[in-house]
Amino acid sequence: MAKRQLWTRIALAAVLILAVTAPARADNPIVQHIYTADPAPLVHNGRVYLYTGHDEDGSTWFTMKEWRVWSSSDMVNWTDHGSPMSLATFSWAKQDAWAGQAVERNGKFYWYVPVVTKATGRPAIGVGVSDSPTGPFRDALGRPLVENGEIDPTVMIDSTGQAYLYWGNPNLSYVRLNTDMTSYSGGITRIPLTTAGFGTRTGDPNRPTLYEEGPWVYQRNGLYYNVFAAKCCSEFIAYSTAPGPTGPWTYRGTVMPTQGSSFTNHPGIVDFKGGSYFFYHNGALPGGGGFTRSVAVEKFSYRSDGTIPQLTMSTSGPPAADTLNPYVRQEAETIAWGSGIETEASSEGGMNVGFINNGDYIKVKNVAFGSGATTFTTRVASTVAGSSVEVRADSVSGPLAGRCTVPNTGGWQTWTTVSCAVNGPTGTRDLYLRFNGGNGYLLNINWWQFGGAGS
Ligand code: FUB
User: Fold this and answer.
1) Residue 269, by phi and psi: left (phi above 0), alpha (psi -120 to 50) or beta?
2) Whose CA is nearest to atom 8 of ligand 1?
3) Cβ–ligand 1 contact at 298 (below 6 Å)
4) Phi, psi of 8, rounded to the nearest 5 degrees
5) Which atom of ligand 1 is nearest to the CA of 214?
6) Cα-based angle 21, 25, 28 (whole degrees, multiple of 5)
7) Is 38 a catalytic residue?
């Protein structure tokens, strides 16, 4: 064999090996069909739930009317749970469904959010409550929990069982929450914003420290962290640590420098399945910017002394923390990357994927097909005949494993189940569901499931 041919073959083999063995990584931003902002992750029962705001399309201000919930078992595929809480949940709220955080206590989920009130025209903190991490949430109090004209609540239950709610821009305050999580003892305490605690800002005599907004307070291995949006504008992400929940705080430096074409940023940090994850937002989607933001995630490791390394925004995100089982029913709105699709509330509960045109697709990452699938079953609805769902592996133009024809079911929410034979895929790989047909909207898809030897 000529030397050049040999090297070409070695290079091709290396590319193939890399393609097959490279760990599946998330695609940032993690949601592509709407703009999302102000991430607040919560780990519960083996899933990470992600609470976000929703920037309206084409927005030229922080025009935000609802919050959204997403969840994942692997940090790469995210299920859309829709909007279980909005401004309408709080009869006293006028506008600005901005940055909040949810926490679980005794089987109930409490979601603290800032909104501008009808009565005062100033921000106050409300609390939604639900029996499920995905809602629906109702107004726990029928009035604000605290009101001092400031925003961005973060909530923490520390190892003693005491819950704290911190919030603020331009100040930073906290209250000690009672175990009902909807009342507090003592007054509102202001945390001294010293340069030793929160770094030095230059050029703004009214704001001598770097602390701007968006605090994310948590306890880990006995150390208390306050990660926050620093300086304005553009913001970067910085952090401070303390030996206790009320300080004294020591400034520790930058977590994420100013990057990513949004002049705000917002931190959220959790440990999940053995890794540590940093959520943030940027303007990375088409049409994205300071008021059309998108949430993204990076994996990181704390240093041995508990400090946080400096992180960089990426388009690849973290590797998969788990595989996805295709032999159990999977919601169509569980997506690593969606191209052209949207989601909506389904008449069968939860959400479905819809507004699908020819060539649109859904990518699902790190799917464990094992020895191989032989059938593909999916729940679909359509008002046109002749469209289909193609099952492909590895890429949207990768090997075609099978094709399911979708009939006219008589309505976009008139559901039927269709099955077709598939030849594989095998092993663990990325799955692409590619939609085909004529002009206009083709079909809606609610869920899918494979069957066969690998199951
Ligand atoms: O999303 C509206 C506001 O922008 C949030 O409350 C701030 O943290 C900033 O991200």
Assistant:
1) beta
2) 214
3) no
4) -60, -45
5) 8
6) 155
7) yes
| Tens digits of residue pLDDT in 206-234 | 999 999 999 999 999 999 999 999 999 99
Grade residue 453 by pLDDT with cuts at 50, 70 and 90. confident
Relative to beta strand 223-230, strand 211-220 is: antiparallel
C-beta 213 within 6 A of ligand 1:
yes
Catalytic annotation, pick one of 27, 74, 212, 298: 212
Could you tell which of 95, 101, 152, 263 is best to mutate to test the pocket of ligand 1, judged by most ligand atoms within 8 Å of the CB? 152
Helix (H) or strand (E) holding 13: helix 3-21
pLDDT tier at 277, thresholds 50, 70, 90: very high
Residue 118 Cα distances to 65, 87, 96, 196, 453, angstroms: 14, 11, 11, 38, 60
Q: Count of H helices and E strands in the chain?
A: 2, 33
Q: What are phi and psi of 192, to 5 degrees?
A: -60, 120
Across 130-159, average pLDDT: 98
pTM: 0.94
Nearest residue to 300 via CA among 292, 287, 314, 310: 310
Q: Indicate if ligand 1 lies below 6 Å from the C-beta of 240.
A: no
